[in-house]
Design goal:
single chain; mainly beta; Immunoglobulin-like; five-stranded antiparallel β-sheet; 2 helices
């Protein structure tokens, strides 16, 4: 923990609270800047997948999922250029359909494209190496009984920096292909978002 010089203040009692407030604000800002500088932040705002029925001339939302996904990673490449630090992922999602036996997963897709509300152009799934010799293309999501998913977890298989950075790619929430709309459009892509750079203020 950084130490802060304590100065003896000679002033009238009426100014003392104001000076203490100013000093506290400076310390908080300094600590915030120091913390933010060692993290790389991204933000991903969820878009519901829209599919168009050309014959009927109507657009269908494949889900009502809403919210955002945030990621951050220690950025100490200048000190440890060969090290890959784990990513902390924060889910803030709601409106999952819990009325059926639906199962959900999330995957990184190669392209960061959402065209006219559709997640169809996000490309194929990216294969992620877990670091223990295994590979995966998706991870399970388990919303609670209210259809919400608020959780943090650590992932060691992906990065926000370097040649394997996932910044600019998309995250896609998949269903299990059992709902009427998933069957109708032959798509399990319920919602998606593009991973973009962030200043970390929303973390």
């Amino acid at each position: 923990m950084a130490s802060h010089r304590v100065m003896k203040i000679y002033t009238v009692s009426g100014c003392f609270p104001l000076i203490i407030l100013l000093m506290s604000t400076m310390v908080i800002q300094s600590t915030q800047e120091r913390t933010d500088s060692i993290f790389h932040y991204t933000y991903c705002a969820i878009h519901q997948n829209i599919q168009t029925d050309e014959e009927m001339g109507i657009a269908d939302l494949l889900s009502s999922i809403a919210g955002d996904i945030q990621l951050r990673q220690l950025d100490l490449r200048s000190l440890f250029p060969a090290e890959r630090f784990p990513i902390q992922i924060r889910f803030n999602l709601k409106n999952f359909d819990i009325s059926s036996d639906a199962e959900y997963s999330i995957a990184i897709h190669e392209f960061g494209v959402i065209y006219e509300g559709s997640c169809a152009l996000s490309g194929e799934r990216i294969v992620v190496n877990d670091g223990n010799g295994s590979q995966r293309t998706s991870a399970s999501l388990r919303p609670d009984d209210t259809g919400a998913l608020f959780m943090n977890f650590i992932d060691i298989g992906i990065s926000l920096t370097g040649q394997e950075s996932i910044v600019g790619r998309s995250l896609v929430i998949h269903g299990n292909g059992q709902s009427d709309l998933e069957v109708k459009y032959n798509s399990t892509r319920l919602a998606c978002c593009i991973i973009g750079e962030s200043d970390g203020r929303s973390w």
